[in-house]
Amino acid sequence: MNYLQQRRNALGQTLKSRDLDGFLVTAAVNVTYLTGFTGDSSYYAVLPKNTLLVSDTRFEEQVREECPDQDAVIRGHNKTTLEAAAEALNKSGAKAVGVEGSRITLGELEALRQLAPKITFVSVDGAIEAQRAVKDPGEVEKIRDAVKVAERGFKMFLATVREADTEKDMVDALEGYVRRAGAKCTAFPPIIAVGERGALPHATPTNKPLGDGAKLLVDFGADLVGYKSDITRTLRSPFGTSPSRRNKLERIGYDFEKLYAVVLAAQNAALAAIRPGVKAKDVDAAARKVFANARFDKYPDLKLADHFTHGLGHGIGLEIHEAPKIRANSEDVLESGMVVTIEPGIYIPGWGGIRIEDDVLITHDGCKLLTTLSREPATLAAG
Amino acid sequence: MNYLQQRRNALGQTLKSRDLDGFLVTAAVNVTYLTGFTGDSSYYAVLPKNTLLVSDTRFEEQVREECPDQDAVIRGHNKTTLEAAAEALNKSGAKAVGVEGSRITLGELEALRQLAPKITFVSVDGAIEAQRAVKDPGEVEKIRDAVKVAERGFKMFLATVREADTEKDMVDALEGYVRRAGAKCTAFPPIIAVGERGALPHATPTNKPLGDGAKLLVDFGADLVGYKSDITRTLRSPFGTSPSRRNKLERIGYDFEKLYAVVLAAQNAALAAIRPGVKAKDVDAAARKVFANARFDKYPDLKLADHFTHGLGHGIGLEIHEAPKIRANSEDVLESGMVVTIEPGIYIPGWGGIRIEDDVLITHDGCKLLTTLSREPATLAAG
């Protein structure tokens, strides 16, 4: 039995347990997950006796290529995809049909209720997303490929970056290299932050040049028509280290090597805590404990725990953020086959930030890094 | 009075006319339109006595910079943005609050109803989108800038493209050049189609090289942190014209020049029909009439009207597709200040396609092209 069939069977179990005899999947990413179709603007309908992909003429050929065994309705120009889907639901005799509560808009649901007044629509939230949290081997391979391509693009970037390049130049260059390495595009707009700008976890690129700082934070990933990767490296930079360029905290001794070592120790503590059955929040706590225990003779007031201002990680797959959540308020429990980021970071205003982010497969007895880039502190060898 | 204030006053009129004393704007693009804030994940609340931007710590600095006069709530990590917004709504005493029906998800609305059980939430559909259809002068200038940058990037692309470049190579190169010309990124993934692949209006890039066809269709635009442009040019290519490479329809005389002339005539007919007060569908019809009347001695069976398989155009602005719709089933009426694409095209399977798309400002007595690239048939001068 193939993976698509397994996914549909699992969804079928959800419907049965909720007394539903139909389901209308409207989120493109979930349509892809259940059918293999990689286009958009199309719906997947589970009906009492069969299933249907509802699409339009733009995607006719693609549907045939990607889903040869799937019944499909290619709507004409005289109706919307929602109207075509409602027609199919009406014909099918379905009485209680699930919809994706966190995806469908209020307007779409109101239109459906008018188009199919005899059907009861029921909000089913996160059912497909919960299935997607545990990857099958084919998905793991696709994520591994997305990691490889991102890493190859990052190496091209490192080999070509120049002191005069601005954050914006570097974002554009990395985009080009990740594509050149084989990606459709980056998985999200890369975050590239020079010097103290690394203190903003979601920095948007400015005209600050690489040469204006003593460290560089790069958060990036690849999208390989579907599966995504998500990696962060923070590098010492040979620039911006002259006494006149060092910021105040660097001058009083906030030291890249010492702080990097703590972030890496936090990541290692998290990796050591990962195994099936463990609560996601306990993995987050394992990293947080390392920051809480870190002490520095030179700057005794620095409490690193206060500077790790986001969750430890998240699932990746067809989306760049998906289940499970690895953070203090998460109720998720880790399972073998999940693929998550582990990304501890510290952000010190006026000094900068360090984040180390890797992609991790949870295995039957622990975890395995999918990322292969070194996690040791490294110096940018910029030309 | 500044533009933001005008936009908010217009929204205030909508609320008054619907007996609402509040509005929660959740779509990022509409938050940007009403506040000038260009980040995401933030909401804008119109309350009985004031307005609030609800955001989180990631955007604290950006909110201060971009919206210095706007009251803002920066939520803590212990709640979601929706929870913080609901809290503000509860405190404000609002009784009937509008939400964006075509934007808010069913799940978000259900959560709001639980968090603010005394408030009646009312679906208001397309109100802000209708305002956005008519641009103020500042917006027109931003779209004009997005056109300029896209055109500059396209010229760089034309100056550097090579016979061996694949559609994928060309998409990646154009992305880089549009950024190099000053854009944050392209306005949408560019469509670049070689030879007969131009027959697919939404072709995704393949490994087909430029040298494999006698024409090249390029549909692209620029995103300048907000406002967008959308342009298509179809060029003769010096490659793929040898007898062995010509496709069957090219061999029997389907001639690029003659067909291009009809598409250009259709576009000119549409441009001549545009003025305030005209129905959008009549402009679509003006273009369609040119196709219906086109006759060719050599291939009398070719009915071009059957090969123009999409609407004539759409509004552009903060989104790449927005109001008004210019198509046969549109109820929209043109107004001065609207900015729209006019993009007639023909798609002949096995032969290819021709589309000419320009960005057009509707003026008090007609229209003005924002695009400055020549619309005359041109040959790619590839190195």
Radius of gyration of chain A: 24 Å
Question: What's the overall average pLDDT of chain A, rounded?
Answer: 94
The H-level CATH homologous superfamily of the largest domain in chain A, spelled out, is Creatinase/methionine aminopeptidase superfamily
Task: Please write the CATH class name of the largest domain in chain A.
Answer: Alpha Beta
Largest interface, per-chain counts? Answer: A-B, 28 and 28 residues
The share of residues in extended strands of chain A comes to 15-25%
Termini gap of chain A: 53 Å
Overall SS class of chain A: alpha+beta
What is the overall number of helices of chain A?
Answer: 11
Listing every helix as H and every strand as E from the N terminus to the C terminus, the arrangement of chain A reads HEHEEHEHEHEHHHEEEEEHHHEEEEEEE
| Biggest beta sheet attributes of chain A | 6 strands, mixed
What is the subunit organization of this protein? homodimer
Low-pLDDT stretches of chain A: none
Count of all domains of chain A: 2
- Give the neighbour order of strands across the main sheet of chain A: 4-3-2-1-5-6
Estimated helix fraction of chain A: 25-40%
Q: Any descriptors?
A:
alpha+beta; homodimer; 11 helices; metalloprotease (chains A, B); Creatine Amidinohydrolase; 383 residues; metallopeptidase activity (chains A, B); Creatine Amidinohydrolase, Chain A, domain 1; 3-stranded antiparallel β-sheet; 20% strand
Describe what this molecule looks like in 3D.
- By secondary structure, the first copy, chain A, is α+β, with helices and mostly antiparallel strands.
- The first copy, chain A, folds into two domains: 3-132, Creatinase/prolidase N-terminal domain (Creatine Amidinohydrolase, Chain A, domain 1), CATH 3.40.350.10; 134-369, Alpha-Beta Complex (Creatine Amidinohydrolase), CATH 3.90.230.
- Helix content of chain A is 35%, strand content 20%.
- The first copy, chain A, contains eleven helices and 18 strands.
- Chain A has helices at residues 3-17, 28-35, 60-66, 81-92, 106-115, 127-133, 137-160, 167-180, 248-251, 256-273, 280-293; strands at residues 22-25, 43-46, 51-56, 72-75, 96-100, 120-124, 185-186, 191-194, 215-220, 222-223, 231-236, 313-315, 322-326, 339-342, 345-348, 352-355, 358-363, 366-369.
- Chain A has a six-stranded mixed β-sheet, with helices on both faces. Chain A has a three-stranded antiparallel β-sheet with strand order 8-9-11, covered by helices on one side.
- The longest helix of chain A is centred in the middle third of the chain and has 24 residues, at 137-160.
- The radius of gyration of chain A is 24 Å and the shape is elongated.
- In chain A, 47% of the residues are buried.
- The mean pLDDT of chain A is 94.
- The A-B interface holds A 57-58, 61, 77, 99, 101-110, 123, 125, 172, 175-176, 179-180, 185, 189, 200-202, 309 and B 57-58, 61, 77, 99, 101-110, 123, 125, 172, 175-176, 179-180, 185, 189, 200-202, 309.
